[in-house]
Amino acid sequence: MIELKSRFVRKAPPGSDLPALIEPAERGEPLLEALPRLRSEIEAQVATVGGVLLRGFDVPSVESFRAFATAFDHPLLSYEFGSTPRTEVGGGVYTTTEYPAHQSIPLHNEQAYTRMWPMKAWFHCVTPAAEGGETPIADSRSIYRRMPARIRDRFAPGIVYVRNYGDFDVCWQKVFNSERRDDVEAFCRKAGINWEWKADGDLRTFQLCQAIETHPVTGETVWFNQAHLFHISNLQVEVRESLEDLLGVENLPRNAFFADGSPIPDEMLDDVRAVLDAESVSFPWEKGDVMMLDNMLVAHARAPFKGPRNVVVAMAGSHSNLGRF
């Protein structure tokens, strides 16, 4: 464990500066009142380190957190074409992924499985878990540099994500926020997604997306995909076998392939996950914490937890690479 300050202890790989810690002049200083004097420091740290943790400030409500996020001059984004269940708290603030507490959520950049994603993400700890529940983060530039060249080269043309919506995953009506097929098809055309309506009325989509990307501002190369999350090897062995027997490979809720459509070996994704683990930075949440990330420079995750936990998220700054493919 690396102790940075008396109130902030983290576990991190050597050389990591994530997250930059910013504390108030006096503990309990209202975050919104502190923003004018902190804005330039926050923006500089997010642009270089990739993320900041604002700790010890007074953030009395989710509304106060929302006001802080919107103060950076980007309207908050709605959660469109989502891959996990969330609930909108209001005004562009959402719960984090609503998976069972005993499950971990691996490192990922928000919506890196699409060709349109938010550039900024804010997290606010309303209630820290009694045990666990951290939000590990990792530098996507360092992940790219550490990734073996054989994997970088194989992933470079992109990743194809296949999704079957329905009983075993989020339904298409919730993912596309509509009951109308016309709305779904219009969104898919805009987002560069291929779709197919199946005989049972459910939907299958296919999309070729980036695996490696260039940050539009800094020009740095980042590892930017969710192949390790969508690939069937992310499932527990018994769940994977059951779904393959029940549905067949073509109808699995989600899967990932190389750009040419060929399967990604399980062993290669084991190596990807090992790199992500090696670059992971973790620290316990404190009530009132606010973390701001550049979503391309920094990936995030969720550790299992016990007891009530409430961490909310907001996103802004839509970016796309639709002209690339």
UniProtKB/TrEMBL annotation:
<dbReference type="InterPro" id="IPR042098">
    <property type="entry name" value="TauD-like_sf"/>
</dbReference>
<dbReference type="GO" id="GO:0017000">
    <property type="term" value="P:antibiotic biosynthetic process"/>
</dbReference>
<dbReference type="GO" id="GO:0016706">
    <property type="term" value="F:2-oxoglutarate-dependent dioxygenase activity"/>
</dbReference>
<dbReference type="InterPro" id="IPR050411">
    <property type="entry name" value="AlphaKG_dependent_hydroxylases"/>
</dbReference>
<keyword id="KW-0614">Plasmid</keyword>
<keyword id="KW-0560">Oxidoreductase</keyword>
<keyword id="KW-0045">Antibiotic biosynthesis</keyword>
<feature type="domain" description="TauD/TfdA-like">
    <location>
        <begin position="34"/>
        <end position="314"/>
    </location>
</feature>
<protein>
    <recommendedName>
        <fullName>TauD/TfdA-like domain-containing protein</fullName>
    </recommendedName>
</protein>
<dbReference type="Pfam" id="PF02668">
    <property type="entry name" value="TauD"/>
</dbReference>
<dbReference type="InterPro" id="IPR003819">
    <property type="entry name" value="TauD/TfdA-like"/>
</dbReference>
